[in-house]
Design brief:
With 406 residues, the protein is an alpha/beta fold. The chain has 14 helices and 17 strands. The protein folds into 2 domains: 135 residues, Aspartate Aminotransferase, domain 1, CATH 3.90.1150.10; 255 residues, Aspartate Aminotransferase, domain 2, CATH 3.40.640.10. Strands 4-10-9-8-7-5-6 form a 7-stranded mixed β-sheet, sandwiched between helices. The radius of gyration is 22 Å and the shape is globular.
Length: 406
């Protein structure tokens, strides 16, 4: 398909809105993405016509929702090239997926004095669940650092790995800096030491082709809402060999086989990890969102976003005293920056009044901010529906900010 930006923008109802009488320019895509009409429509279509709880009913509506939920699972399996739909667990998002792994894998495989390696570039969601686990198990976290450009120093990994290392966990793309990490290389190093790897794909899946078989990662997790699907949806991919060995995370309906007061047995994969009524209409909408992304073409998306990143980086670099944090050679369409002497909140507030939505703060990556000894940044994150003209408005807005505060 041709990349028709006008048509693409018309697929997203919110993009034609105004704020404070100005056209909305949405540059907060790393926090969450906007939703195309087809995703919004499928939610109302299912609630209006087919809604009924999945897996338990013999009637038509339940069968319809069950089938659509399981088809969405197959869509996800295909999208990330997993071996089997048994390896696709529906969750509520990246955080939920990581907590599931930290609890279930952690309970089974992490013991006293064991070590888990995380990167310094992680979102709090890929730090805190491991800290909680390490407190419970008296295990230890080791940190793979990054350099001034925001690139992981992979050479240091070999020194961090020991006989006690039981897991390496890191993101494919940093949410605060946009760095694309060399995860294939890291996975190879880990596997040559028999260490499994969990990849947080929250900021990667929407920007580039992800093939879990090629990557050979042991776990891959992401959130639906960052890839044009509803909030409250998410995915945990895990190799079957791990998921089979891991105990259930939560108990309840659907995850059981037989329940007696004497002994309960558990359902097969993937249902063993899906306790309670799932967000089935959300899952169905996630499948729709992935179909939509596939129809645009992930390589077309990557190409357009690369143009936005290059143009944005060049324009913003023209502004005196503006410092960009995160200058990795491989980056997604994220620009994190500060203008010397101007608080990020002030910059964000002025841009907001001009219709430009950016995020300010530490982006749930306090260790990254600590590394640079700053409290936070202003972050503009672009999606494939953004345009060069919108970046021009950001640039003009920043010139106004400079004028106002200097
Ligand atoms: N990891 C990364 C890299 C993220 O960017 C985010 C969201 N900002 C998360 C984890 C957490 O995702 P969620 O809040 O959707 O669970």
């Amino acid at each position: 398909m041709d990349f028709d930006i006008k048509k693409i923008r018309s697929d997203f109802p919110i993009l034609s809105h105004t704020v404070y009488g100005k056209p909305l320019i949405y540059f907060d895509n790393a926090a969450t993405t906007q939703k195309p009409e087809c995703v919004i429509n499928i939610i109302s279509e299912f609630y209006k016509n087919y809604n009924s709880n999945v897996h338990r009913g013999v009637h038509l509506l339940s069968a319809k929702c069950t089938e659509a939920n399981e088809n969405a699972r197959k869509t996800i399996q295909k999208f990330i090239n997993a071996n089997s739909s048994k390896e696709i667990i529906f969750t509520h998002g990246t955080t939920d997926s990581i907590n599931l792994i930290a609890t279930s894998f952690g309970d089974k495989f992490i013991n006293k004095d064991d070590e888990i390696i995380v990167s310094e570039l992680e979102h709090h969601s890929n730090i805190v669940p491991w800290q909680l686990l390490c407190e419970r198990k008296q295990a230890k976290i080791k940190v793979l650092p990054f350099n001034e450009k925001g690139e992981l120093i992979v050479d240091k990994l070999k020194n961090l790995i020991s006989k006690k290392t039981k897991l390496i966990t890191l993101n494919q793309v940093s949410n605060s800096l946009g760095t694309i990490n060399p995860i294939k290389k890291i996975i190879e190093i880990a596997h040559s030491n028999n260490i499994p790897v969990m990849i947080d794909g929250a900021q990667a899946i929407q920007h580039q082709k992800v093939d879990v078989k090629k990557l050979d990662c042991d776990f891959y997790v992401f959130s639906g809402h960052k890839i044009y699907a509803p909030t409250g949806t998410g995915v945990l991919y895990g190799k079957e060999k791990w998921l089979e060995q891991m105990p259930p995370y939560q108990g309840g309906g659907d995850m059981i086989d037989v329940v007696t007061f004497k002994k309960t047995t558990y359902n097969e994969l993937p249902f063993k990890f899906e306790a309670g009524t799932p967000n089935y209409i959300g899952n169905i909408a996630l499948g729709k969102a992935l179909d939509y992304v596939s129809s645009i073409g992930i390589s077309n998306i990557a190409k357009h976003e690369k143009e936005l990143l290059e143009y944005g980086t060049q324009k913003l670099s023209e502004i005196e005293n503006l410092i960009i944090y995160g200058n990795a050679k491989n980056k997604t369409s994220v620009i994190s920056f500060l203008i010397n002497g101007i608080h990020p909140y002030d910059t964000g507030m002025v841009l907001d009044k001009l219709g430009v939505a950016v995020r300010t703060g530490n982006h749930c990556t306090q260790p990254v901010m600590d590394h640079y000894k700053i409290p936070g940044t202003v972050r503009a994150s672009f999606a494939f529906y953004n345009t060069i003209e919108e970046i021009d408005v950001l640039y003009e807005g920043l010139l106004k900010v400079v004028k106002m505060f200097n």
